[in-house]
Design a protein that fits this description.
single chain; alpha+beta; Uridine Diphospho-n-acetylenolpyruvylglucosamine Reductase, domain 3; five-stranded antiparallel beta sheet; three-stranded parallel beta sheet; 10 strands; disordered C terminus
Length: 273
């Protein structure tokens, strides 16, 4: 399918973009990487009459080291973050998580600010922002303001960024040295649980308010339970893989693959082996 008709603007400065938002009011939508908005428009799930494209604003793409904080411009491509030596050194959690975002073509277009502003509960970047107690900087008619991650996300796909404001920067505190080696982050598992819980909460709280039918509400709740079940199964499998196999199982695996002669196979089950 193709999107409904819309007016298109491509400003080259943040001030120009803010002026366009003010002139068109709530009818306008900002376009960053387009990896979420464009598919929604193609399927007519979203039909904004005005698009303000931020891709021609070079001042919004950068990765800077500010001592105890790494500042990343909202229009910085996810691929640039993924390949950044500064991010790998100072923000190993972000470096690991961003490799799981979509795939290479989408990361080459998708932006860090666009993913965070979209506020998908299943997305990796909003989770990283919250896990690191980061913040975002937005600009609007009244100037700049900083919003902590704890105050940014209000609901699924909903943030505290006003309709006439633009997310211009992401700020993440530098992780302690060796933090990546002291533990690992199961980003896929955390994402699965987040999406599952969000589906269950939506089915219980929001679906009745939105006028969903009983069958649709049950499907949403069941979907959430299935996702949590998948996470539990993955954790159980991971635990099983980490458990040393019994001696008899080890003997069977090894001898069946190497085809050890019977008179030597007993050595494998010996306590001294």
């Amino acid at each position: 399918m193709k999107p409904a008709s819309f007016d298109y603007y491509a400003p080259t400065t943040v001030d120009e973009a803010l002026a366009l938002l003010e002139a068109n009011g709530p009818d306008s939508r900002l376009l960053a990487g387009g990896q979420s908005l464009v598919p929604m428009m193609n399927f007519r799930l979203a039909a904004p009459p005005v698009i303000v494209d931020l891709n021609r604003i070079p001042d919004l793409a950068y990765i800077e080291d500010h001592g105890d904080v790494v500042c990343i411009g909202a229009m910085t491509r996810q691929r640039a973050v993924e390949s950044s030596a500064l991010v790998a050194d100072k923000l190993p959690m972000l470096s690991a998580a961003i490799k799981l975002v979509g795939h290479l073509p989408t990361r080459s277009r998708g932006t860090i600010g666009g993913s965070i502003a979209h506020a998908d509960p299943a997305a990796e970047l909003p989770m990283v922002l919250q896990a690191l107690d980061g913040a975002v900087v937005v600009r609007g008619p009244n100037g700049r303001r900083t919003i902590a991650a704890s105050e940014l996300f209000q609901d699924a796909m909903t943030t505290s960024i006003a309709a006439d404001e633009i997310l211009v920067e992401v700020r993440l505190p530098v992780m302690p040295a060796g933090a990546a080696r002291r533990g690992s982050v199961d980003v896929a598992g955390a994402t699965t649980v987040t999406l599952g819980l969000a589906s269950i909460v939506f089915a219980i709280v929001r679906a009745p308010q939105a006028g969903w039918t009983s069958a649709s509400t049950l499907v949403a709740g069941f979907f959430g339970l299935v996702l949590i079940g998948v996470f539990v199964a993955r954790q159980a499998k991971a635990t099983e893989l980490q458990r040393p196999p019994p001696a008899d199982r080890l003997h069977h695996r090894f001898s069946s693959r190497v085809r050890i002669r019977p008179r030597y196979s007993s050595v494998l089950s010996s306590p001294r082996a």
